[in-house]
Amino acid sequence: MSDGLPYDYVDSALHERRERVYLILAGLFLGSMTMLNILGVSRFLDLSFQIGPWTIPLPLAVGVLPYPITFLCTDFISELYGRKRASHVVWVGLGLNLWVVLFLWLGGVLPPETSFEASGLPSIDAPDYAFYRIRQLTMGAVLASMVAYLAAQLVDVYLFHFWKRLTRGRHLWLRNNGSTLVSQLVDTVCVITITHYWAHGLPIDEAEAIWPQLRVFIVSGYVFKLVVALLDTIPFYLGVAWLSRYLQIDPNAEHRQWETRKNGGSSPGAS
């Protein structure tokens, strides 16, 4: 008995608590991923700022705004639930976004037939103009977002556990920031280059050199993600400390199991 309750009741309540938190983290991750792929490059924000006499350009696609949250969620899941469950969420996210694209495609091919102009869209005053505009942007950038998403998220999960093994479960800040900053660089380069060369979805001036313009988009997107990643270090520390107690999870248990397997079944330091 524990606090007057049977063990099986306590274990069941704890399991439910752990799964509820996992569902919240996974839901936040999947919802953010779906939202950012639909919003995508539908609007570019101008967050440029002045430093003395210099103007620092900072164009930012609106779809980038929720993206850093996805990495924070996978880092929480990696730390508390292990690499396997974090990888599962990444693959489900890929399937979910393909599911969204399926219905965007289906919604455009079913009756009634729509008249399109040379732009590939209905006239701007047509009632379904907004749908086809979002569909065009989402479908056009889907390859970029999916390749970047899959590459970046799998790199994030892999590097998180690489740093965890390398530091023997210490230095939480290193695996949180190290995995996120590298994976977000992968994501930013992939999504900008593929969106331009495949989907032609960036506001590029064809009369000017292409790569200097692409560099501005890559650096701007990455700087935003870098700043948010550094800012989330303290919330991540506090969140892991509180959740590991609330869920009664030892974040280093997976690392110790890995060490045990590596040492042929004996714990590190065992004689």
Number of strands: 4
> Largest sheet at a glance?
2 strands, antiparallel
Gyration radius, in Å: 22 Å
Uncertain spans, ≥5 residues at pLDDT below 50?
267-271
Helix content bin: 55-70%
- In whole angstroms, the N-to-C terminal distance is 36 Å
Number of domains: 1
Strand content: under 5%
Content-based structural category: mainly alpha
Helix and strand pattern? HEEEEHHHHHHH
The strand line-up of the biggest sheet is 1-4
Helix count, DSSP H or I runs of 4 or more residues: 8
Shape: globular
Mean residue pLDDT: 81
Question: Topology of this structure?
Answer:
Elements: H1 7-39, E1 44-46, E2 49-51, E3 54-56, E4 59-61, H2 67-81, H3 83-109, H4 129-166, H5 172-199, H6 210-231, H7 233-246, H8 253-262
Helix pairs in contact: 1-2, 1-3, 2-3, 2-4, 2-7, 3-4, 4-5, 5-6, 5-7
Describe the model.
This protein is mostly helical and 271 residues long. The protein has one domain (7-262). The protein contains eight helices and four strands. The strands form two sheets. Strands 1-4 form a two-stranded antiparallel sheet. Strand 2 (49-51) and strand 3 form a beta hairpin. Helix 2 runs parallel beside helix 4 and helix 5 (172-199) packs across helix 7 (233-246). The two termini are 36 Å apart.
